[in-house]
Amino acid sequence: LRAGGVIAYSTESCFGLGCLPEDARAIRRVLAVKARPNHKGLIVIAADVSQIRHLVKPLSPAQWAELGRYWPGPYTFLLPASHKVPPALRGRHAQLAVRITAHGEAAALCRALGTALVSTSANRAGQRSLKTARACRQAFGERVLTLPGRNIVQQISIFSLVMNASLVVQLVMAGLALVSVLSWALIFNKISVLRAARRHSDEFERNFWSGADLNRLYEDANRRNDSVGMERIFQSGFAEFLKLRGRSGAELSDIMDGSRRAMRAAAQRELDALDSHTSFLATVGSVSPYVGLFGTVWGIMHAFIGLGNAGQATLSTVAPGIAEALVATAIGLFAAIPAVVAYNRFATDVDRLATR
Predict the structure, then answer these.
(1) Phi/psi of residue 224, each to 5°?
(2) Are 44 and 52 in contact (CB under 8 A)?
(3) What tens digit of pLDDT does each residue of 298-356 get?
(4) What is the pLDDT of residues 18-75, one digit of tens each?
(5) Are 253 and 224 in contact (CB under 8 A)?
(6) Nearest Cα to 292, choosing from 181, 127, 176?
(7) What keywords would UniProt list here (predicted)?
(8) In this structure, what are the phi and psi dihedrals at residue 307, rounded to the nearest 5 degrees?
(9) pTM above 0.90, yes or no
(10) Residue 324 to residue 7: CA distance in whole angstroms
């Protein structure tokens, strides 16, 4: 670089061509490699503000503070160029396009060199930007020293999107993740409860229809004191039957009506127990997508606000914000879909038990 060379290195959205920003000869080489018109100018990136202060005219502390809201980041701003900027770097403009990069490899390169770098997409003018070191080596050969690395789009992961999301989107994601965990805990609990209810119902039906003495069934249920489902219904009805039969002058129809009422009440209690908390699954299934959509709308709005304040619209400017917004919707669907499926399955299972 200090000898006027040109390098290809990884940046936010693609590989970039770079050189020292004060070296007019190297800048002309970059323009020649790209076949880019001289009047368009180039971008300068840096690891921190100290590396670009000499390239721009003095700014007020308030202006630097405002820039600090967006840097380091994918945002490029047009600032008044100082007299130290070669004309080939700014082209026909009085401003210089500068960015404090958030890309780890590009920032590390600037820190290691102790200087800012020219940054323009690694491609010939009008052609698609190159996104890998291998493509740069094939395209430029020995004219450009290609450094290994990956652009930020290749580095994007779900974890990085969540960690770098705005506070509102992070809160939405955290809430949906918590709801999803609670839903799965309830789903596994309900699976166990309904499985036990079916098993106890099958066992009681076998005993009931085997011709066993009803008094013995009732005594066994009282002795265990853990009856559920159909056995609990039978126990309640038989207890009411014995109580009413012990009254003097009780009519058989009154005894049977009382037993039926006791069994209906017990059946309703058992169904309520089986249905408990399933409304939570219904709520999660219906509300979670909308909560995720809120996070998506907020993330997209945040991304476009940042884009409006940037000096240049690139994939690296838009992609992270849109991606983090879509993650919120994905988490909302991840919470909602199992809840809806489980709710429908549990409702069917409870109905089957109720009609036995």
Answers:
(1) -75, -35
(2) yes
(3) 888 877 776 665 555 555 566 667 777 888 899 999 999 999 999 999 998 888 888 76
(4) 999 999 999 999 999 999 998 889 999 999 999 999 999 999 999 999 999 889 888 8
(5) no
(6) 176
(7) Cell cycle, Cell division, Cell inner membrane, Cell membrane, Membrane, Transmembrane, Transmembrane helix
(8) -65, -35
(9) no
(10) 32
